[in-house]
Amino acid sequence: MSASDLHFDGEFPIVIEGLTNAFGDFVVHDEIDLKVRRGEILGVVGGSGTGKSVLMRSIIGLQIPRCGSIEVFGQDIVAAEPDEVIGVRNRWGVLFQGGALFSTLTVGENVQVPLKQFYPELEPVLLDEIARYKTVMTGLPAEAASKYPSELSGGMKKRAGLARALALDPELLFLDEPTAGLDPIGAANFDELTRELTDTLGLTVFLITHDLDTLYAICDRVAVLADKKVIGVGTIPELLQSDHPWIQEYFNGPRARAAVASRDRGNRAKGMDKHSDREA
Ligand SMILES: Nc1ncnc2c1ncn2[C@@H]1O[C@H](COP(=O)(O)OP(=O)(O)OP(=O)(O)O)[C@@H](O)[C@H]1O
Questions:
Q1: Which of 75, 149, 260, 276 has its CA 20 to 30 A from that of 22?
Q2: Which residues line ligand 1 (CB under 6 A)?
Q3: What is the pTM of this model?
Q4: Where do the structural domains in the chain lie, given as residue ranges?
């Protein structure tokens, strides 16, 4: 438990204790603990290969840990029978790295995949309607629902993947490097969309990223993976109190300074917009 969790009296949709993941002799996580707070966007960072994706896969039951426990909405994910997990699986949505859309299905059909899986009784006309609604919710035009992934830009594919992740009205959203491969404007727009959806839908978000701009712009707290452990969890100012060299180098390096400057410029621009709105 992090020091700040002692002062947090809300709920924790994800509770991880003593989690060890290993492939043969290669240990990725060594007895890690992590709690995700309801309503937060938790950024998960760490060098390449520190096990961010493996951690996410363990939480959603795609990776069987060597030991430890993972509870999602109070349901034990590790020890449970597959049937027992179904009740929580429809409470989360996942945007995998690269979108992971089915290339032979249209965007709308992709969004319908989880709907058909969990609600096979839904009529086709209703499935179409929900798929169109989810597509538009992510900022895509309604016509995008009838397009194939190969007809979409990288940014549109991410939004389509997000629409599918939101298909079941999840409470918990997993995003694995959602802004990777997007240009800075596309990435900033996606960040804004993530924040807006989190606030309006009351989501809790587990967000793996290498993108410092994303961390500074939208994450409430950040968890740092290094040395097979979670070496810190907190707001960026809290993490900066740590003297761990990776944290210092990451959050005090030139790229972090550029991210802070960019966030501040964005905030100033928003303030000016509000000002000119009031004057108009
Ligand atoms: N199925 C697997 N079999 C063997 N090793 C694996 C498997 N999946 C992941 N690994 C190893 O586990 C380690 C952590 O992988 P993971 O993909 O979680 O890293 P990551 O922190 O997400 O990296 P990146 O930032 O580069 O995406 C890596 O060394 C990877 O090679």
A1: 75
A2: 23, 28, 46, 48-54
A3: 0.89
A4: 103-162
